[in-house]
Amino acid sequence: MSRVCQLTGKRAMVGNNVSHAMNKTKRKFSVNLHRKRFFLPEENKWITLRVAASTMRTINKNGIAAVIKEAKAQGLI
Fold this sequence. Notes:
Elements: E1 13-18, E2 24-29, E3 33-40, E4 45-52, H1 53-62, H2 64-74
Antiparallel strand pairs: 1-2, 3-4
Helix pairs in contact: 1-2
């Protein structure tokens, strides 16, 4: 299973480790993913999603229904 947020589509980024001598080596910035259960009151059921920690903050702010609706509009679900 790839490390991609199911609601926002966030995935790993690539960058550099930079030493004090300014030597650069490639590295990967992984997404902070968590498996989390959410309750959908409209459908009266639980769903399990792999979402980034930043996405959980957005869900707490806007609500799970609004975030899922926006993800469907963007074609991520």
